[in-house]
TrEMBL record:
The gene is cas7e. InterPro entries: CRISPR-assoc_prot_CT1975. It comes from the Bacteria. This is Type I-E CRISPR-associated protein Cas7/Cse4/CasC. NCBIfam families: casC_Cse4. It holds the Pfam family Cas_CT1975.
Amino acid sequence: MTNFVQFHVLTTYGLSNPNRDDMGRPKQAVIGGEVRMRHSSQSVKRALRESTFFSNDLADHMGTRTKRLHGGLVQHLLSKGVAEKKAQESASTVAGIFGKLEAADKETGEQIATTLAFISPDEWKLAKELAENVAAGEKLPKDKDLKKGVLRRADGAVDIAMFGRMLASDADFNRDAAVQVAHAFTTHRSVAQEDWFSAVDDLNKDDERGAGHIGESAFGTGVFYQYVCVNLDLLVENLAGDRELAAKAMEALARALSQATPRGKQNSYAHRPRAHYMLAEQGEQAPRDLSGAFFHAVKGENLLESSIKKLEETRKAIDDAYGPCWAAEAKLCVGKTGTLDELVAFAGKAVRGE
């Protein structure tokens, strides 16, 4: 049986615009006939990866998503004393393993990849070593063997293990995501609002009137439901069997879910919320989200309390009908029960089997 941990998170956002659409407005969705604010799963995953719990605490185990591997390899070879022309050629050979490259820039000689590649620390190290070998004139193996010398199906890259990757150059080295992240959405009706603003030119003369700039900025607010499902067995497999690293990754994920947020317009709205409610469930049954609790928009004077009540009622109703899909749980409800440290410890123990 597969071992899962599921997170259900309720977070209240004040006036903010963390995740914008192509018009600069807060992303929205119509659910149950009502307009809701929304944060895309992509923006949430980036916020998790960039949180200090990952970017600092697990810095040696984080991949790099980039089109600029070629330039990085060129700089590495130049630092080793390789002539620039040879460095450019060697870097092209190795960078091409990760995907097709565009034509070289006429001024810098850099070749940008046509698609982003998610590269693990181990793969960066191996790519540099191979580039050095190429520059030294060593004969290269054929295509498949060449890729096997650099690309990895599993290693110590926590973010790639969690969120997966698609490698356009060779699907054999894709990685299935161990962590599924849903779009977050408000549990209640929430419509974007407009803020008209103006800015004054500081160097205006005393007799000059009028604004130096005028514009509009949209924002929204609400209680957001976030669902995340983790396949613990796949997480350990993606990390080449390193169960302790997987446990640390789960602890980082639990902490990040409590406070990481997309950072759009953060300087304008200073949105830095922390989750009011977090429920973690561990078990071997088929997982299920609880978004159905909010298909009909929550109403009432206290939207947060009503959302918590609706979530727990829906959970009980589903468990009564299907049987519990969890064998253990941990809960944080600010002002009522649990602590973040307890929930984080629960997430780690679920991997360690404690």
